[in-house]
């Protein structure tokens, strides 16, 4: 039987995805014009495209959305996880329609354009996703030109010349430039607006920004902490100058082993203080490296808002938000670390806890944005530890 909804062949392609293998996939460009090179991955979330495009962990990546209708509720000014869009571009099946939401401030097309990010529509995203699943996430170039003019051999060269994410430290590029208090408050049901707590005598967490998402800080504040954010390259002395009661290691882009070269010595010193520490995603991987474990590049990675994870101490299953292309090798965990969470998709490591220090971390994103909120208990766990250790309320 013929496909009831065949993809419209572009009359004149205005966009193209060129893979390092030389394959070209034609479509219709939207958003900004130009060309960008990076790793082509896929994301299975059906909502939250603004949060995904602004997640700094996506620096260096081009996102294929498996959900066919992306952009149809437009873009607003609130659903962002950083001040900039970080993903290089996005690949979608259907054309972006006019925004249909009372919250929309503009269309997704113009939102991307204003941020210099390229969109490519009219792509058979199922076929592309299958290709990524079978062959791993390829390097490629996404290009948009309204005139339909593309120098394909040059784009193939561009894709081939890109060295790939392995060995690449991107945290330094997306981190904040200077120490600053997190003063973005949160609205809490019944309690109204709670300021970010910058001046409050709350348990004080120093967060190392390797490419952090704002919703992590919102959740730390909601759990009762005051947060100061420091650049990825902050030294141990700079960290301690803020008199932290606890340490937080953020998510972020690139290869943890490359970022670990400068982050690991500082994290080891943090652990020696005996104060509570919590890490998310890249922060989980860096904690693992700091205790002597290894990280590896995954075949296709995990990117979605519905990844089941088993919590080993209770047997409970959490549905989680994920976005990672590297993973901690379970067998490399030292004796003073226990695995706390595993992926029910592929059994990969999703969490660890030290047995001789108050430090733990998870591979997934408990702050969601987008995604389910099953894992918010981790913020409570961390902040209550910091509260108990510091004696502050
Ligand atoms: N979300 C993250 O922090 C991603 C961590 C790391 N860059 C990875 O891809 O595995």
TrEMBL record:
Residues bound to L-glutamine are: 57, 252, 254, 282, 285, 323, 325-326
SUPFAM superfamilies the UniProt entry points to: Carbamoyl phosphate synthetase, small subunit N-terminal domain, Class I glutamine amidotransferase-like
Under PROSITE patterns, the record lists: GATASE_TYPE_1
Which terms are listed as keywords in the entry? Amino-acid biosynthesis, Arginine biosynthesis, ATP-binding, Glutamine amidotransferase, Ligase, Nucleotide-binding, Pyrimidine biosynthesis
Reaction equations catalysed: hydrogencarbonate + L-glutamine + 2 ATP + H2O = carbamoyl phosphate + L-glutamate + 2 ADP + phosphate + 2 H(+); L-glutamine + H2O = L-glutamate + NH4(+)
- Its job: Small subunit of the glutamine-dependent carbamoyl phosphate synthetase (CPSase). CPSase catalyzes the formation of carbamoyl phosphate from the ammonia moiety of glutamine, carbonate, and phosphate donated by ATP, constituting the first step of 2 biosynthetic pathways, one leading to arginine and/or urea and the other to pyrimidine nucleotides. The small subunit (glutamine amidotransferase) binds and cleaves glutamine to supply the large subunit with the substrate ammonia.
Q: What is this protein called?
A: Carbamoyl phosphate synthase small chain
Instruction: State the encoding gene.
Output: carA
């Amino acid at each position: 039987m013929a496909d009831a909804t065949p993809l419209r062949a572009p009359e004149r392609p205005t966009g193209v995805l060129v893979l390092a293998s030389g394959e070209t996939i034609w479509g219709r460009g939207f958003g900004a014009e130009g060309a960008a090179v990076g790793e082509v991955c896929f994301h299975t979330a059906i909502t939250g495209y603004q949060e995904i495009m602004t997640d700094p962990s996506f620096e260096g990546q081009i996102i294929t959305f498996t959900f066919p209708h992306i952009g149809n509720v437009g873009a607003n000014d609130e659903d962002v996880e950083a001040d900039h869009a970080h993903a290089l571009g996005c690949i979608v099946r259907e054309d972006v329609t006019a925004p249909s939401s009372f919250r929309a401030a503009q269309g997704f097309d113009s939102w991307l354009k204003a941020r210099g990010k390229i969109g490519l529509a009219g792509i058979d995203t199922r076929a592309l996703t299958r290709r990524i699943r079978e062959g791993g996430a390829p390097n490629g170039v996404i290009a948009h030109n309204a005139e339909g003019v593309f120098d394909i051999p040059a784009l193939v060269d561009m894709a081939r010349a890109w060295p790939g994410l392995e060995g690449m430290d991107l945290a330094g590029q997306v981190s904040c430039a200077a120490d600053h208090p997190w003063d973005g408050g949160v609205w809490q049901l019944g309690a109204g607006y709670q300021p970010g707590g910058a001046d409050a005598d709350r348990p004080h967490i120093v967060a190392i920004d390797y490419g952090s998402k704002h919703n992590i800080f919102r959740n730390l504040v909601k759990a009762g902490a005051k947060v100061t954010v420091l650049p990825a390259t902050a030294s141990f002395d700079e960290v301690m100058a803020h008199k932290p009661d606890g340490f937080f290691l953020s998510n972020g882009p690139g290869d943890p082993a490359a970022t670990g070269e400068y982050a690991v010595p500082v994290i080891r010193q943090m652990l020696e203080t005996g104060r509570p520490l919590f890490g998310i995603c890249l922060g989980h991987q860096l904690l693992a490296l700091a205790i002597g474990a290894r990280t590896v590049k995954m075949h296709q990675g995990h990117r979605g808002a519905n990844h089941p994870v088993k919590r080993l101490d209770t047997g409970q299953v959490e549905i989680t938000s994920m976005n990672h292309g590297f993973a901690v090798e379970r067998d490399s965990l030292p004796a003073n670390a226990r695995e706390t969470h595993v992926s029910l998709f592929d059994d990969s490591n999703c969490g660890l806890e030290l047995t001789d220090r108050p430090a733990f971390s998870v591979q997934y994103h408990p702050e969601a944005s987008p995604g389910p909120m099953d894992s918010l208990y981790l913020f409570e766990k961390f902040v209550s530890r910091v509260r108990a250790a510091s004696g502050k309320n």
